[in-house]
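Students often ask why we bother encoding 3D structure as a string. The short answer is that it lets us treat folding as translation between two languages. Here is a chain of 316 residues written in the first language.
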Amino acid sequence: MVVFGVLIMAAKFIAHLITQSNAILSDAIESIINVAAGVFALYSLWLSQKPKDENHPYGHGKIQFISAGFEGGMIVVAAFYILFEAVQSFIQPPAVKQLDIGIYLVAASGIANFVMGTYLVKVGKKGRSDAMVADGKHLLTDTYTSVGLIVGLILVSITGYIWLDGVIALLMGAMILITGYGLIRKSLAGLMDETDMEIIKELLPVLNENRKPEWIDIHNLRVVKYGSHFHIDAHLTMPWFWSLEKSHQEVKAIDEMASEKFHQHLELFIHADPCVPSSCGICELANCTERKHAFTQKLEWTLRNVLKDEKHQLGS
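And here it is in the second language, the structure alphabet:
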């Protein structure tokens, strides 16, 4: 991945030396970020796979958020430099030349970035690696800017309007700035343990499809992400008269079911709650000798009610 980035960077700087185009220079500068981010991403992937230890009881996965944030920060710095160079080009227009060679080199680089970026995003999503997905999206963004760059260079070549080169550089700088902001935003969300709603949305259908009558409700469901691993907390309401051993068996059943869904990428911690009289209306447990009220209806577990820190009942 790093060697790939170095080759792409070299091709773009060669294109700039040949053409003297500020738009191509902006694309080449972003490639420096690709290489630096690739090195950090590789390190973060290696570190995140290290097993838990006494100092890191939840593992080392959060390094991937730091990697994504680092990449986003470098992208922002590059974007401001590109914008500065674009403004300078209006004051002192460059002597743009041999655009045809530059277009071919940028096109080849764009195709290579698209192939590698698509691969990294696919593998990163499958392995739930934020660092790899961030690196892949960065390469895809580079591809999109290369397409815009090629269109712009063709226009410059046809019309002879050199000022279009600066306009293209400005647009590319703005696009790169937005990409960097997005990566920083996601990185900070992960470091601050923001709930990953997408994971909860994936988990809910599995819980609903495999729920047992004894699982009266699940609430206070929370997900914290550590790189490609997840830490899930939840409260499970079960019959109050059950033994500790029976309750443990049901907790283990949910744990195994969730682990199968996410291929061992999670830790599930369930707090067992005893049912209360108001739970009877949604409790499907047949022949319950302790029932206070008749069963009324099954309450589907939804994103709205599983996040609440309270036992479910009708009307909740």
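Translate back mentally: The first strand starts at residue 217 and ends at 226. Keep this in mind for the problem set.
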